[in-house]
Amino acid sequence: LWTSKNIIDSSIESVREQVGNEQVVLGLSGGVDSSVVAALLHKAIGQQLICVFVDTGLLRLNEGDQVMAMFAEHMGVNVIRVNAEQRYLDKLKGVSDPEEKRIIIGNLFVEIFDEESAKLTNAKWLAQGTIYPDVIESAGAKTGKAHLIKSHHNVGGLPKDMKLKLVEPLRELFKDEVRQIGVELGLPSDMVYRHPFPGPGLGVRILGEVKKEYADLLRLADDIFISELYKHDLYHKTSQAFAVFLPVKSVGVTGDGRRYEYVIALRAVETIDFMTARWAQLPYDFLGHVSNRIINEISGISRVTYDISGKPPATIEWE
Ligand code: XMP
């Protein structure tokens, strides 16, 4: 019988049997899959689990602190946080091509994860948040950015000389099953039912070259948009919503002053499979309110636009 409790019990049993008393390392991204693996393994093997959380500096507002608060402080999971913002910024300096940025971000993740796991000389296992659709996906031929999806979270990071064995407790589960298990394991439903967030993070939501100044402005705008969606009960009526930073300047006025500042685009879509998507018909009043808040509260942004492109012909992300 499929109940989340049964799945959890049998996963715990097989993980314990599989890894015995050996140490397991997991790349924790803060996304649903790796979070559920962390919660499950923590329950199964407690302190034998060591999570490595790479803060790329391309995460959403306060996301790094939230991951640490939930797993390390609240649940007592062993988490090593690596603050790698400056390394990412250095590597991305002067790079504006989207695919090149993706490759740099993905490779750097693998590099940092390898460095950290190499220090864990007792680790014998690598846990991954692979779910059933990932198994199917990597079996089929994929082109373009689709094949890079998750590559640096789920399949990279195998340290060359450590010969870690793989443990993938979600390998047979679909996304909605993973979510149910997450809730059953006590993860907050806000995190379990969060919109998908791309592996390269804000790196592909800042058009062109990534700069800290841009990432900081984008984080603030994105946070206003998302928190207003929650407040107006619209978050779960969209499949994915986010802000995009456009590195062009536009003129505006505030009081008696002239502003010449950056532009934010808001994107919200409705979709079942993310292969095609419609732009979400959010209420005008709501969009107006979000736009006012962004322009009034964020010095550096003078204009907000709403993206009304479907997929196809556009993609969901801007890069
Ligand atoms: P697009 O932009 O291709 O996005 O319509 C479809 C879905 O995939 C996500 N996405 C990514 N996820 N790494 C990821 O992990 C990536 O490089 C990447 N590019 C797009 C996107 O957020 C959307 O959910």
Automatic annotation (TrEMBL):
Alphabetized UniProt keyword annotations: ATP-binding, Glutamine amidotransferase, GMP biosynthesis, Ligase, Nucleotide-binding, Purine biosynthesis
Molecular function via GO: ATP binding; GMP synthase activity
Protein name: GMP synthase [glutamine-hydrolyzing]
Subunit and interaction comment: Homodimer.
Reaction catalyzed: XMP + L-glutamine + ATP + H2O = GMP + L-glutamate + AMP + diphosphate + 2 H(+)
Function noted in UniProt: Catalyzes the synthesis of GMP from XMP.
Enzyme class: ligase
Organism: Cycloclasticus pugetii
One Gene Ontology term, aspect cellular component: cytosol
Pathway given in the UniProt record: Purine metabolism; GMP biosynthesis; GMP from XMP (L-Gln route): step 1/1
E.C. number: 6.3.5.2
Positions that bind ATP: S29, G30, G31, V32, D33, S34, S35
Residue span(s) of domain GMPS ATP-PPase: 2-194
